[in-house]
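Sanity check

After download, print the first record. It should look like this:
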Amino acid sequence: MYHKTGYVLTRQLKKVVSMLEIDTHHPNETDFYFDKRNHTNYGTDRATGERFAFDTVGGWTRSAFAPRRHSSQSHCPRGYRLEPFHLKSGQLYLQESPDLFCNVTELEKAILARKAKIIHFVRNPFDMVLSNYLYHSQEPTPEKWVHNDDPCHVKYENEVTLASHVLPNIGTDEINDKYFSNIVKMCRSLFQSKPSLQNSTFYEHLLELDSGDGLRLATAQMVAASGEANQHHAGGDVARMANNIVKLKELESYMPSEVEVLTMSTEEFIRSAANSTMRFLDFVFGVNNTIISREKRWEAAQSQKKSFDRVSGMLPTRREKRKKRKKNKHITQSSTQEEKETKESLKELLRSDKDLAPILKLTESLVDEALSASAKVV
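Expected structure tokens:
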């Protein structure tokens, strides 16, 4: 996943999988086998050593591997302490914004599991960049890194750019090195270029620029920035998502009997959280799984709908029943007709933007194509 709603959603879904398995096999030992504070939870029976559930790797505070980072040798994702990227059998990995910049032969070496299932959470890029802008321009901002970021910094430590990694997979006659250079020029024309903003932070720009320019600046960062300037908390996720759609399709074709990919969108869960969760669980466990019955899965899906509705502001939390609170800051859904109209006008601005529209439209097409293909999977 690449976006804040997806961050919340995927962590909820990981818990749904774990709790279904634990409740089925060890209903009275939930606290022992699952602790949301742990980065890794183990699915082996403590008495017999036999596996009854996935080990889960990745939690609320961090992913299984380092987001937006890769090995300078293989260009595959890397661990937090430079450990190699491997996907092992019996593991459920939770990963944000992976750098799938390596070739399929390198990915094949990394996938030790047979058979591997990959669920790729995507979002419409126009919705994604608008949500990103609205999220980071809140007062106060939910993220500290926006006070120190250079949104136009596109190089990694080795002076290689993000564009050089993604263009081999998503490049076209229009989207090339010159195209990405023009996005950087546009970014520089907005960031610290006005006398009144010469010493201002990225966050201050989001507040002070008019909404159109603020959105363009934030979107340029989401398209071209490497993330080096903010310790890889953000940057380049639009181009990264487009690249990864192409790379996962290539991987599935290269290893057809060993890798299966399901692409799902955040919008699916916003429209119908229960049905989408059921589809997710059917893919994870198998439609005909008799150990974790369809009844159990549907009950879990209904419960997940309530959880997702609660964090997205559609249902009040217990605390909100006692005291008025804002929605979960990770979710930026429109509530009034005026807000919806403002969002639509900003998206139309992006659709006509000469610098940003081409990459956003290409990514939108790739997202739609991947979702259409996955409609046949489960």
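If your output differs, re-run the checksum step. Summary of this record's structure: The radius of gyration is 21 Å.
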